[in-house]
Predict the structure.
Amino acid sequence: MILRQVFEGYTTVKDISKTSKLSQSRVSVLVNELQYKEFLNIKRIRRKKIVEFYFSKHAENIRRLFSSNIPVEKILAGGKLDILFSIHKNFKNINEIREETCLEKETIRKYLRELSYLGVVEKKDKRYKLAYHPLLYEFLSDYSSYANKRIVREYDESAIILWEEGRRFIFKTENRLKIDRYIKPTAFTAMSKYKIDIISKYYYYYYSPCAGELRVEDIALHSIVVDKESSRNLIYAMLLLKKAGFDEEYLIKASSIYGAKTIAKNMIEYLRTGKTVERIYGRRFPNIKEFKEIASEYGVEV
């Protein structure tokens, strides 16, 4: 691993080539890739090119990992890094990991066995999560956030990420973007598909390496997580669910990803009974009369 050799004091392409047994041309390519990702920096001193660590937070974190007793190369090799991005915050089953990483189930099982053997993954009720390790958690959090910002800037320099987990994120921009295999309109931008037209200066998009079509429940939840204290967003989310219809079980399951399970349960109860909930995490639920008036404006029967 090139980073390990730089950490151990090999600072020229020639030295790294000798110790890694890779050609100098191959080392140059790898070093340039790591420079692009802001792990390494190349500076010229007289006629020599010196390779050193970049001053980014994730580069500092990888140096700290090398100083620990963690077998970094074994843990972060190949698709294991994508799996750790997926599970470093929450327990997830193999199907959920597959949806986020695009890896085959057998590959995921193989990597999880290896990571469990190395002591960095714990298992509970067929669900997996990063075991307690502050250094590794900090690296994964910082590097996934950095990588997501690099990706979103390719779509729009002014875009703002509003929610992220692993390699998935929701962002807003003042510019309408061309849809591709990775981004889909969500939140208020996607509601027009259901004849709920909301005026906003922003367009909202969801990015995932494995993005498929978003369900109405996803769009409603995204509308909530883009502003954690907005009662207005809560109302629009419930209008969408009421108008389009939804699967209660799926809504509850998906809400756990966004830390919105309590809100999802209360939305279901509210839409069933009209029972008013005072406040949930700063959001005010409308009384049923107020909700009906707003619903009528959007052609939603309550």
Q: What stands out?
A: The longest strand covers residues 40-45. The chain has 15 helices and ten strands. The chain has a mean pLDDT of 90.
